[in-house]
Amino acid sequence: MSAGIKSSFVNGAFVAPRGDEQILENRNPSNPSEIVDCFVRADAELANQAVEAAHAAAAQWANSNPQLRADVLDRIGSEILARREELATLLAREEGKVVREALGEVDRAGRSFKFYAQEALRASGEKYDSVRAGVGIDVTRHPVGVVGIISPWNFPIAIPAWKIAPALCFGNCVVFKPAELVPSSAWALAEIISRSGLPAGVFNMLIGPGRSVGDTVMRHPLVKAISFTGSEQTGRQIAGIAIERMAKVQLEMGGKNPLIVLDDADLDIAVDVALQGSFFSTGQRCTASSRLIVTEGIYTEFTQRLTERTRALKVGDALDPATDIGPVVDPKQLEVDLGYIQSGVAEGASLACGGKRLEREGGGYYLEPALFLDVKPEMRIYREEIFGPVLSVLKVRDYEEAFAAAEDTPYGLSAGICTQSLKYAEHFKRNSSAGMVMVNLPTAGVDYHVPFGGNRGSSYGAREQGTHARDFFTKVKTSYQLT
């Protein structure tokens, strides 16, 4: 292999390039002239080889000792945590997430592997008495087989970790395709996994385009389940492909998450919650609160404070400890964000602050966080997922109107409320259509040991994370026996 050029991992080894493949340059969004890494792009042929290698290893791994699986997963988690600063710096350089957030993401990845190391030892079944005399019943769970995992660019190590770890824990083999925008974190994870003691073929990683590599994995008859996180449009296409050939499918597809702020809210808490949930990670989170719904009694003071705090955010290089918000991930996403900002102004919303591209030394795809007031429910900036630091604020009369506005969306991932009222907090938790509900907390920010997922157009299939992950990564068998 050429010095400095990295490749996919298939059947227990990093693949030697043939010499005619395309090269992918991974550039730093804080400084686009800096190349983080170069990669040989995989193709459909290599994707087929990866699936076949996973299938060949599936029976052995499915029947492996749970202690072996626990030890492997624990070693992976331990090395991730031991290398947290190095991996966080890499993540910040390729994705633009500020270092403190990157450190949190790396920690979460390591903890996910360690959590599923313990879950491997908790495998259990159920025993029932039959309604027929002399008959016993066992209910057991078994691996699905080969699982295709397709992850997005906004969490380059955490999302792969919370998909790969349970897949391996429950005895499945993996073919993993990361987003091409963030291959370095995926490669680092694969390199750690390669030394964990897994048999060849159990884990495979393909760096390549979705139109060839991803499509091959999705359509391959030996791939029995597909776990995808990304856009709703792509998710719907994957669902159609999976259902047509009767494969299991798990989709996380984003959201347009509301945060209600009521008149009785603690203003300091509410402003912090809105700021963190809306703008941190450059707003590039499917759980970001991009719709604020604020009651009229607190609206003026709240928006004044929020505007001041938004203006004070420092936008800059992701590696600078003083930076609050790093760059947008790439020029294409920056153009999308700027297009929505132009749309908001054209539709009559008031741009309270931000919304301009910033020039910094070294270039970089920097954007001032944009805060829109006087927003109407029919505006695109209020209704459509932008995936950038663009926040819309809607004024309403009371809780009832706020709740109706929060529910007025085709999505249902995360939703939040800031209030000191137990009555309203409990009503919101019970009646919100979102899969995750936050009270006096940002809509973005979840734990690794509990279920993650939404409803409506946000999610499809079994929940991710925690013990609930076994519902997707296993199949149930009911056995009857004459006793």
TrEMBL record:
PROSITE patterns reported for this sequence: ALDEHYDE_DEHYDR_CYS, ALDEHYDE_DEHYDR_GLU
GO molecular function, one term: oxidoreductase activity, acting on the aldehyde or oxo group of donors, NAD or NADP as acceptor
Domain Aldehyde dehydrogenase: 19-478
Pfam families per UniProt: Aldedh
InterPro entries, per the entry: Ald_DH/histidinol_DH, Ald_DH_C, Ald_DH_CS_CYS, Ald_DH_CS_GLU, Ald_DH_N, Aldehyde_DH_dom
Residue numbers annotated as active site: 252
Keywords: Oxidoreductase
Domain of life: Bacteria
Sequence similarity: Belongs to the aldehyde dehydrogenase family.
Name of the protein in its database record: Aldehyde dehydrogenase
Species in which this protein is naturally found: Stutzerimonas stutzeri (Pseudomonas stutzeri)
